[in-house]
Amino acid sequence: MARISFSEARLVTEGFTLEYYEQLIVDPYYRTIAINTLWFGLATTIVSITIAVPVAHALAKYDLRGESLILTVLSFPNSLPGIVAAFMIIVLFGNTGLITNIVAAFSGRSPIDLAIATSVGGLFFAYLYSMIPRALLLLRGTYAEVNTDAEEAARSLGATPLQTFRYVTLPQIKPGLIGAFVLVFRTALAIFGTILILKSLLVWTLQIDREIAQGFNIAQASAMATIWFGFVFLFTLLALRYTSAEVSL
Amino acid sequence: MATYDTGSLSARFGRQFVKLILVTTVIFLSLPVLLTFVSSFAAQWVGPLPSGFLTFTNWGDVIGGTGVGADVSVGSSLLYSAGLAVAGVVINICVGVPIAYAVARYDFWGRSWVNVFAILPLAPGIILGIAFLRAYPDLSTSGIALVIGYSLLKAPYMVMAVQSSFQSMELRRIEESSRSLGASWLRTFLTVIVPNAKEGIVAGSIICWTLAAAEFNFSYIVYSRGTPPLSIFLYNNITNASFLNAAAAVSVFFLLIALVTIALQLVGNQAAVRRL
Amino acid sequence: MATITLETLTKQFDSTTAVDAVSLTINDGEVLGIVGPSGCGKTTTLRLIAGFETATEGTIQYDDEDMTHVPPENRNVGLVFQGYALFNNMTVRQNVTFGPKMHGVRKQERRERANELLELLDIRELADRAPQTLSGGQQQRVGLARALAIEPRILLLDEPMTGLDAQLKRSLRRELGELLDELDVTTLYVTHDQEQAMAMCDRIAVMNDGHVEQVSTPADIYESPANEFVANFIGTTNIVATNTLAGAVDTETAPDQGSTQNGHRQLAVRPDDFVVGSGPIEAQIANLFYLGEQVQLIVTTGDGTELTVHCDRFDADGLSVGDQITMDVETSRIHAVNETQ
């Protein structure tokens, strides 16, 4: 670990000009990219956690048939790199994608018009494809520690299932939710392979690649990488300080 | 009386609603995997579903290599990535096991910090890749850069897997009883502690290996020529080859993951399987 | 408050039958205990009554209302859990007012009700504390206050004393017993501790393997257990054949029902039904335990049967392991037992 910080440190110690950082702050082009990155990351994080909570709930509370198969399916995407996640979205929403064609068949419109894989919408789903399993992994751990007796106590005291969730379960999983939020948001900010293939939104990591590939401007890319690193580092520190969230992964 | 039989809205429909989300999620995550695998045996996919079964042309192209797009065979990429990943895992074991042990066994200043940083991947592949390009420009084109990068990126998984093994052991007592019987610290560590954590080390190695073999972001930034690692091979296929060829290439990767999952299950580490 | 009636209540989990055709009535205002070894189905029965499990067969009635398929929140049962299951994210008072709040009771009224209950249970000064800062005994009272706050039709207590130390258990047992008497609320008390149940309950149901073996008053269950299982589970019992006690028990006048083994009727004899000193039974002391007020002797009779005998500590003076003793039996107190079905 020390080696990473060492090599990170090399980035800024060489040379010593603030020109590239200035560029990042002054140029509205970069500002737009930063805003794109943040809102898209935030939106996908919130949606994936919103989906992961009921799924983790069902896995923890209900008797499900084929539960171990379900678990395998739900954790499988965790080991897929981003480029494969992008491909999965092309399979579903691309020009020949299954869902595109189903919608086309019902609406009578051309699949080409309906294909959203390489639009921002498709990218949204691609992010979810990588992030929901990640969120689930964390929330399942949280759910394992929920006191079921307290939930039953609430039911017997007259709370409906929804009220039980709101007053008893939710306060218990709150630290886990915050921990999941921090880590899933980090994941969202770090996504690169997916965006490299779908290319529908210019985010920070994609711009870093462009700096290198299109101008071989390693200095600018390094500055961007350092900013990225500094932001995530501070964000994680702050989040950890204000929550007692158990952090794993 | 009637209200008793039906109950509140959430008592009646809550469960169905939650299950619906579960089923949708499962379909969303598994359907494209299945479609990809199935379509890799198809001759064409123009309508809503692939057609022209059963053909092995796509697999043949992937395995044998074609002149265009994916210009090398999957075999060489797979072997190359496997070799690099193994080297990364060896480094991970040497570094990760002592770290996990230190954090689990000793109380020292900054322990919680070491813990947090050992299990949080500090920088994602792309950032680390830039750091490498900048710091070691000459090294970056060789396999060595990839090995070091892989081991740094995947070290947290090793630390976590080993730590979960250590947490279930009474380390202090084991260490003290071994020392009281006359074994030196190093001997205790190598002959008592490490063998006891074998399961975690094996699981951690498998996980690190898989993730390293599949690593894309770092490889993409650092790789420039020579045999492409597996993930670069996949990337070339997805971007340049025909859709069905890409499907076959991705399926090769699925098979790899499936094999690894089975291997983990054989090791008996359920928790590790979920982690993966 | 209500009378609870279970009719051939059955619960199956996959292939195992946890509760097997249990029919039981808990009368209005009574404290009924269910005792039995772990896995006998007592907790499942409680969960069926509370509504957390759905019966495979049979019905549950509160007075005349069929409650078999009513969700738990509409049953109005007060539940006290083994680990108390307090809401740690709320204060003690919020725990107690939670039930009334869910039932739509006005804020002012539920506050008053909570204060009354906290007063009754002598924990008024803890109202604003967080549950995790309380001792086990205090947490138990909060759990009880929370359950009582909804004015339940039945109070269900699931092993409420587990995890407390022996002395606290004894004092709580007395307090809880007095409180239940005072409140006059229909109560089901589930425990594996038969001593607790004997002390607190008006009637006891002994469960084994999903069945109810016997339902009766504590005294009745102790004095005339319905079968071998009950005799063994409640207190210590020697199950002996009549011929072992030949001379002490007239085989003719001995109870004539019950099961037999090798042609000899099986009898249940409590350790304190033996009179050590003189009598027709000869035995050798194999072991001797000083229990305080009493001394427990493990003796072996001539035909090799091992018996557990209690005698007064003064009568045991001078006895030691290996001694030959003679003893008699209080014939009026022994009775035949049926084999457990």
From TrEMBL, chain A:
It is a multi-pass membrane protein. Keywords: Cell membrane, Membrane, Transmembrane, Transmembrane helix, Transport. It is found in: Cell membrane. The keyword Acyltransferase does not apply. Coiled coil: none annotated. InterPro entries: MetI-like, MetI-like_sf. GO terms for biological process: transmembrane transport. GO terms for cellular component: plasma membrane. PROSITE patterns: ABC_TM1. The chain crosses the membrane at residues 38-60, 80-107, 114-132, 177-198, 218-240. Residues 34-239 form the ABC transmembrane type-1 domain. Belongs to the binding-protein-dependent transport system permease family. CysTW subfamily. This is ABC-type transport system permease. It comes from Halorubrum coriense DSM 10284.
Automatic annotation (TrEMBL), chain B:
The keyword Cell inner membrane applies. PROSITE patterns: ABC_TM1. The keyword Acyltransferase does not apply. This is ABC-type transport system permease. It comes from the Archaea. The chain crosses the membrane at residues 20-46, 78-104, 116-136, 142-162, 201-223, 243-267. Belongs to the binding-protein-dependent transport system permease family. Its main location: membrane. Residues 78-265 form the ABC transmembrane type-1 domain. Keywords: Cell inner membrane, Cell membrane, Membrane, Transmembrane, Transmembrane helix, Transport. It is found in: Cell inner membrane; Cell membrane. InterPro entries: MetI-like (IPR000515), MetI-like_sf (IPR035906). GO terms for biological process: transmembrane transport. It is a multi-pass membrane protein. GO terms for cellular component: plasma membrane.
Automatic annotation (TrEMBL), chain C:
It holds the Pfam family TOBE_2. It catalyses: tungstate(in) + ATP + H2O = tungstate(out) + ADP + phosphate + H(+). SUPFAM superfamilies: MOP-like, P-loop containing nucleoside triphosphate hydrolases. GO terms for molecular function: ABC-type tungstate transporter activity; ATP binding; ATP hydrolysis activity. Residues 4-234 form the ABC transporter domain. InterPro entries: AAA+_ATPase (IPR003593), ABC_SmlMolc_Importer (IPR050093), ABC_transporter-like_ATP-bd (IPR003439), ABC_transporter-like_CS (IPR017871), Mo/tungstate-bd_C_term_dom (IPR008995), P-loop_NTPase (IPR027417), Transp-assoc_OB_typ2 (IPR013611). It is found in: Cell membrane. PROSITE patterns: ABC_TRANSPORTER_1 (PS00211), ABC_TRANSPORTER_2 (PS50893). One of its GO terms (cellular component) is ATP-binding cassette (ABC) transporter complex. Its main location: membrane. It is a peripheral membrane protein. Keywords: ATP-binding, Molybdenum, Nucleotide-binding, Transport. Transmembrane segments: none annotated. Its EC number is 7.3.2.6. The complex is composed of two ATP-binding proteins (WtpC), two transmembrane proteins (WtpB) and a solute-binding protein (WtpA). Belongs to the ABC transporter superfamily. Sulfate/tungstate importer (TC 3.A.1.6) family. Part of the ABC transporter complex WtpABC involved in molybdate/tungstate import. Responsible for energy coupling to the transport system. This is Molybdate/tungstate import ATP-binding protein WtpC. It comes from Halorubrum coriense DSM 10284.
